[in-house]
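User
Take a look at the entry that follows and flag anything odd:
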Amino acid sequence: MTRTRTGVWFVGARGNVATTAIAGARGIARGTTDETGMVTAREPCTLLDLPAVSEFVFGGHDIADRPLIHTATELSDSNIVDRETLEIVSDDLREIDDRIETGTAQNCGSAVSLADGDTLDSNHTVSEIVEQIRSDYSDFVAETGVDRLVVVNLASSEPPVTDPDRYETLAAFEEAVEADDADLPASSLYAYAALDDGHPYVNFTPSTGSDLGGLRELAETKNVPHAGRDAKTGETLLKSALGPMFAGRNLDVLSWDGFNILGNGDGKVLEDDENKAGKLQSKGGVLSNILGSNMHNRVRIDYTPSLGDWKTAWDHVHFRGFMGTTMSLQFTWQGADSTLAAPLVLDLVRLVAYADDHDEGGVQTHLSSFFKEPMDVSEHDLSRQFAMLESYVNDHLDTDDREPLTPLRTDGAGSDSDTSESDSAPGTEPKR
């Protein structure tokens, strides 16, 4: 097999999720951690020739200037990044830190603090910001010699775009860029610069990103893969698994209330009602799709500084059964935000890079299980979403004259015990 090096460009590269993903990837490369939590480390994805996590080369944009090693140390103090890995990858983090460029906070909302660093916005038009982003991408590829670049948006949630129909065509979007349209959000500018230069784009956040008609058109025209929005890592993951249970048993869910508290930078940003709006929409829409829109369905998100990167969700489900008997389910989900998110980030990089290698441009609908609000997919039943990924893998195994896999199991049995990265690089030449 031909070993390739995949460039990974994080928007929000100095944040907790990006830092955990980088430290974890380098830990995998150096043998201090394993791939627990990664979907691509078990069947069916292990049957694909995916790029090796150990070969990822990292860079990114951020508006903060705090070094990666500082963020990683804080995460280690909170038991997110283990101490051994931190010590082993500390030099890697310092090297990667030198490849993080100043980003934009264009239309990101007042809650996004600019106190920690500079931005591209103050002295640049929208067109100039795009050109600088594009230049940063191309310089990174040239300087590192990577075979492909995947751009992943991990920045804090932006307010929703008020009138997305204004950017329904590529021509309209590009006219808006040239007209210095202040309503264009940073996530879409990063996406535009990526897709226009042929770099796959993943929107891990609730922000708009590539989910505008004009950018969808661009991705189709350029045949570039993209995916999003809003990764499904905690409470909503449970909803997408438990909701179908109630529906399948014909139990009438009367109300489903979820209360979330978290203490990291994202939690602070979500204190702002504008920035919170998109997050609430993606979290609440899952149940409406599965159980119908008539039930009472409320989600709250509150900032609790003392929690740091840890988050807690408490849900109360009130439902009615046979002969009108009312019953309830309550559950509490407590998890480390970045620990849950980081392995999925690495999964998505591998899978969109694979799609790019196979000239599969446009929205990657088979990745719907990763997102709360998957683009072009109305199905929110988690098991059915997993089946879409399984079907995708089977299609590729059929094409490669390999034995199709048995149906995907979710109980841990049948997972691939050999997760060595040395055997997982693609066997075909990538496209640049």
